[in-house]
Amino acid sequence: MAIFVFYQSCRTLPEAKVTIGVSAEDFSEPTRAAMDVWNGFVGCEFFVPGDDVLVKSDDGEPCGDPWRPEDEWDHAATAYRCPNGRTEILVSSPGNINTQACIIAHELGHSLKEYGVEHASIGVMAKNCVVDSQNVMRIRDRDVKAVKDAVCD
Fold this sequence. Notes:
Structural class: alpha/beta
Distance between the termini: 29 Å
Strand content: 15-25%
Low-confidence stretches: 1-9
Largest sheet: 5 strands, mixed
Radius of gyration: 14 Å
C-alpha cells in the first residue's frame, strides 16, 4: 500500500479551484489511495472527502435501480451517473487492496469524463489496470493535462 500513498505523504498539494467529493461506504483505504494517485498526478487536491461520488460494494442496484445493462454484468466495478447527478461506483470483484485501488482509480476516471478523460490503452483508464516498472499506477499525460487545466489554479 505504501506505493499508492506515496503522493500524499511526500508532498503537500495545493487546493483546487474545482473539487469532487468522494466517500466510501466500503473500500475506504483503496478509495483514498485512488484519490491520492489522481491528485498526485494532476498536482492539486481536487478529489476530496464529500458526497459527489460514492464507492461501495455492488448491491445490484446502481443509483437505487435494479436494472443495469447486460454488458456490465461481468465488470469488476462500474461507475454510474445517477439521475440526481451523483456518481456511484459499484465494486463487484475487488481482489487485493492494490487491485481495489487500481479499479477505483479507473472508475474515478469515469467521473472525469466532462474534463476529457476517456478509456485509453495506457494508465489507469486502460481496460485492465496498468502499472509502470516500479509497480506504480500511471495516469496518461493528456488526461493529467486536461484535468489539471480544468480543476487546478
